[in-house]
Amino acid sequence: MAQFYSFKVNQIKRETHDSVSISFDIDSKYSEEFKYIPGQYITIRVGVNGEDCRRSYSISSSRNEKLTIGIKKVPGGKVSNFMNEKLNIGDLVEISAPQGNFKLENIDSKNTRKFVAFAAGSGITPVLSMLKEVSQNEINSEFLLFYSNKTSKDVMFKDEIDDLKNQNISTRFIFTRENSDLELYNGRINESKALELIKSEMSFLNADAFYICGPEEMIFSTKSALESLGVNNEKIKFELFTAPVKKIEDSKEESLNIDFDGNSKITVICDDEEVEFDLNKDGDSILDAAMEQDLDVPFSCKGAVCCTCKAKITNGKVTMDANYALSDQEVEDGYILACQAHPATESVTVDFDF
Ligand code: FES
Fold this sequence. Notes:
By secondary structure, the chain is of the alpha/beta class. Helices cover 19% and strands 32% of the residues. It contains 8 helices and 18 strands. The chain has helices at 78-85, 124-137, 158-164, 191-199, 216-228, 253-256, 286-292, 328-332; strands at residues 4-16, 19-25, 41-48, 51-58, 68-72, 92-96, 114-120, 142-149, 169-175, 209-214, 236-240, 263-270, 273-280, 310-315, 318-320, 335-337, 341-343, 347-351. A hairpin with a 2-residue loop joins strand 3 and strand 4. The site of FE2/S2 (inorganic) cluster (FES) has 14 residues, from loops. FE2/S2 (inorganic) cluster (FES) binds at residues 299-309, 325, 337, 339.
């Protein structure tokens, strides 16, 4: 269950015309809770026009800097616009402790390693944290970054990336609406572009991990390009930076329980409270239904991306509309994204306090 802490805004820096980075003063008494691995995110809770809004934002700072997040304005986005336009230094913001599965592997390894990242737009945020970590603590390791934007004016954290470039970090900027000198660096990252890019740096094909962060289409085409070159699936890590548009086909539902008529008795455990309610498999998600019962269940994106609504099934089964956050192992161990979950058995127990 996500707990929120109030911290002061220490710095706000305009990164581009539509994005800012925001640094916070984390009270030293919470330094344990706020330890993180580069790549992870925090969830913030703000009131916008009287509405309780929560959003997750990736951390861009290294572990020895003030905790900083990057926020790009989303058209019509209540929180991203509020944070870009209305927030002031000294304001208090409610933040939950860092979490997330997209993170730099074996963080304290002493070995020399190679990493590759493909980032698009604000998808650079968690990757920047990784780049800084490697440049500061893994002197002999190498990190190759492909960073795609519409134009050079849209590049977030430009100064910081440039400062890292001469060390063990190599950066290739790709533009979709501006011409670079090299044709290779022009155009959208689709499967053939991703193939061209990685083939131009074949010495990185044996990298220890490949991180992809951006919109859904770019993630899956890059993943598929890497797989076609023989990269082991386990080395490919990704984080979606827009809510997915596709739903995962789930054909398992029918085989789960053929006697199930669709009506289920749900028990939700949250903050040591236990609440029961009825829910149909074609109705609201378990998260929304629990909120209807006035339970303060954790959530952020409601789009299968952030993992904030992670819960454990201790009885029964569910299906999920989409899952872009949990690993196969987590699903096998009974974890679900409550924002995507619907009952598939007559009774289901969902534990947020797992
Ligand atoms: S609220 Fe983000 S994955 Fe469910």
